[in-house]
Amino acid sequence: MFGNNIASDCDDTLGGRISMAREACRLSAEEAAERLGVLPASWNAWERDRDVPRANRLAMMAGILGVSPSWLLTGLGAGLSEQRPDDDPAELRRAVRQAEEDIEALNRRMRQIASRLEDEDGAQP
Prior knowledge:
CATH architecture of the largest domain: Orthogonal Bundle
CATH superfamily of the largest domain: lambda repressor-like DNA-binding domains
Strand content: under 5%
Number of strands: 0
Structural class: mainly alpha
Shape: elongated
Helix content: 55-70%
Distance between the termini: 72 Å
Largest sheet: none
CATH topology of the largest domain: 434 Repressor (Amino-terminal Domain)
CATH class of the largest domain: Mainly Alpha
């Protein structure tokens, strides 16, 4: 009914490539969303091309899925077939977790600085 182009058709969109990469990692949409720190509904909307992730989320998503951000966006670059066999998935997952922790620490620091700036702005006549 759909012909033989189903696989190639589904990877022609950002959502199709997100879905393919997630499945190649053997993650459910819920697991992937949890790792990325988003709601499963957001992840599902991205896979169905109903919405697109912001650039920072896309970069983190690429790390979680083991592909390049450019491959997710365009289908060009380091994607599923170009993954290096010498990459240790456990080490890559640790690196992603560490990056996520670093990002969260930076976000906390930025909020602290912004709060101090707001306090100083409010104290000045």
